[in-house]
Design brief:
Length: 125
């Protein structure tokens, strides 16, 4: 209710329908334009096979990035959860090309052995 009073629009894509195998999709309309912040805390169902889990995470992040490129306002912010893996630098380069500021963040609450990190990309070009 507070968000509505301040003119905040929330677009939510979530639930069990989101997964690397099932695909990530957001319905698009003219109302979807004008997003200033996208937070993706999406993670695939893990298998315990590190490469497979990383690949699924990377696929989700690529899909989220593609959505962001279509609906994020200039100057917008994108925050993504991603699992670390061998090709993460290639993905990071894609993000860095499109944002002026790029940082990686590992929450203090995250276990040391966890491969989960967050990409914080600010100022969409």
């Amino acid at each position: 209710e507070l968000a509505r009073q301040h003119g905040v629009r929330v677009m939510r894509a979530g639930g069990k329908g989101i997964g690397a195998r099932k695909g990530l999709s957001v319905s698009q309309s003219n109302e979807d334009k004008g997003i200033d912040l996208i937070i993706s805390d999406v993670a695939p169902t893990t298998s315990g096979i590190k490469f497979q889990d990383y690949t699924a995470s990377l696929e989700l992040c690529n899909r989220t990035l593609n959505i962001a490129l279509n609906i994020l306002n200039k100057g917008g912010i994108l925050i993504l959860k991603i699992f670390q893996g061998k090709d993460i630098e290639l993905f990071n380069k894609q993000v860095k090309k499109r944002f002026l500021n790029f940082n990686l963040y590992k929450p203090k609450s995250s276990r040391t052995e966890s491969k989960e990190i967050f990409i914080i990309a600010k100022f969409f070009k």
